[in-house]
Amino acid sequence: MTLSTKILVVDDEKEMCDLVRAYLEKEGHYVDTIFNGEEAVTLAKEKNYDIIILDVMMPGVDGFTVCQRIREFSTTPIIMLTARSDEHDKVMGLKIGADDYVLKPFSPKELVARVEALLRRTAIVQSDTFQVGPIKVKKNARQMFLYDDELSLARREYDLLLFLLEHKGQVFSRNQLYDTVWGNENDIGTLRTVDTHIKTLRYKLKSAGSQIKTVWGVGYKFE
Question: Ranges for the Response regulatory domain (predicted)?
Fold first, then answer.
């Protein structure tokens, strides 16, 4: 990476900011640090960051609120940090626009790897048209192709597959997929709906369906 890659780190713990900054700068990233949510929103408006690393638990304006406010004017990728392992927090973060979620304590090297993976993924999905393996996506037209053949997908099948493709390699529980794709709809029966849609997608994707992996005891991912 070059110094043109700009990252904002938001955490009320200065020591944490300094640690993350040191590891990111070592890899050639330019890093700004800020210690409260209100100033983070202002800075995000003023500068065109490539990624924002955002702590959830901050006094005053918390990370969830900061993420929501940034999403009102920016699509900059956001990685959220939290010391709480509650799955509800992760679902909440993803629903309001976070792109990844890292639990404290974490390895700084792992965080750097997640940053660089997210930068690569963002470079792919920012385009209207992108491809993952044999699957080609035209987002504006809501079309997907398996090799050269267009896939016939129901609305939620498309939404579910697009989410998995845009978060390639990440594991999501059925609860997370249900909340992210279906939201608060009342006409959906149970979490078995997710399993049914995964089964249908695997069938429609033929041999490529094997790339939708079941992570036993956890959920699903696109590999």
Answer: 6-119
* Residue 150 vs residues 3, 63, 134, 140, 146: alpha-carbon distances, Å: 40, 40, 12, 15, 6
- 199 in the same domain as 111: no
pTM over 0.90: no
For residue 171, the SS3 value is coil
pLDDT in tens, 130-160: 788 889 888 888 899 998 789 999 999 999 9
Asked if 44 contacts 52 with a C-beta cutoff of 8 angstroms, the reply is yes
The per-residue pLDDT for 106 is 87
Q: Domain holding 73: CATH number? A: 3.40.50.2300
| Same-domain pairing of 102 and 179 | no
CB atoms within 10 A of CB 50: 19
Containing domain of residue 64, as a range?
A: 6-127
